[in-house]
């Protein structure tokens, strides 16, 4: 079973962006900060939809101009078996841009170049060929 999780956009001013989305009825449901990665993730959702569909705001601490759609990040889906899903995609000719080496997360792109994050509920033990497969491009 596949479950839609969230859409990610990059933001330069988290407080202003949160205020904007609050005006249309969304509120913050959780926040994650990475000192090492120098970013903050803020998840918003409409009341009653917290576990159904979320908007992820990604604030990269180092300033970066977002041009050419760079502020749109990715769509995310939880999959039942990340290895089987990636195998099925690869067998169909899809490039696995970020393989599921950790048994938890992978990235692929649609034919139009939209980034799709695939997430395993929990983690599966590392498996070959995924564990040693390198990244094959931006994700």
Verbal overview:
The protein has 139 residues and is mostly beta strands. The chain has 2 domains: 70 residues, 2,3-Dihydroxybiphenyl 1,2-Dioxygenase, domain 1, CATH 3.10.180; 41 residues, no CATH class. 14% of the residues lie in helices and 37% in strands. Strands 2-3-4-1-5-8-7-6 form an 8-stranded mixed sheet, with helices on one face. Strand 7 and strand 8 form a beta hairpin. The longest helix has 10 residues. It is globular, with a radius of gyration of 16 Å. The two termini are 23 Å apart.
Topology of this protein?
Elements: E1 3-10, H1 14-23, E2 27-34, E3 39-45, E4 54-60, E5 72-79, H2 82-91, E6 96-98, E7 105-109, E8 115-120
Parallel strand pairs: 1-4, 5-8
Antiparallel strand pairs: 1-5, 2-3, 3-4, 6-7, 7-8
> What's the end-to-end separation, in Å?
23 Å
The dominant shape is: globular
**CATH H-level superfamily of the largest domain:** 2,3-Dihydroxybiphenyl 1,2-Dioxygenase, domain 1
Strand count: 8
Structural class: mainly beta
Unreliable parts: none
What is the ordering of alpha helices and beta strands? EHEEEEHEEE
* Beta-strand residue percentage: 35-45%
Biggest sheet descriptor: 8 strands, mixed
User: Helix count, per DSSP?
Assistant: 2
Number of domains: 2
Using the coordinates shown, work out and report the CATH topology of the largest domain.
2,3-Dihydroxybiphenyl 1,2-Dioxygenase, domain 1
What share of residues is helical? 10-25%
């Amino acid at each position: 079973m596949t479950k839609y999780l969230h859409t990610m956009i990059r933001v330069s001013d988290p407080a202003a962006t949160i205020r904007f989305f609050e005006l249309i009825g969304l509120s913050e449901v959780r926040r994650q900060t990475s000192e090492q990665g120098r970013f903050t993730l803020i998840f918003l959702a409409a009341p009653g939809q917290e576990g159904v569909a979320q908007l992820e705001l990604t604030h990269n601490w180092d300033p970066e101009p977002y041009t050419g759609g760079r502020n749109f990040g990715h769509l995310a889906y939880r999959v039942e078996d990340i290895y089987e899903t990636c195998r099925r995609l690869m067998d169909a000719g899809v490039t696995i841009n970020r393989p599921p080496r950790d048994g938890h997360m992978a990235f692929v792109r649609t034919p139009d170049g939209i980034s799709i994050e695939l997430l395993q509920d929990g983690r599966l033990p590392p498996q070959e060929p995924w564990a040693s497969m390198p990244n094959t491009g931006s994700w």
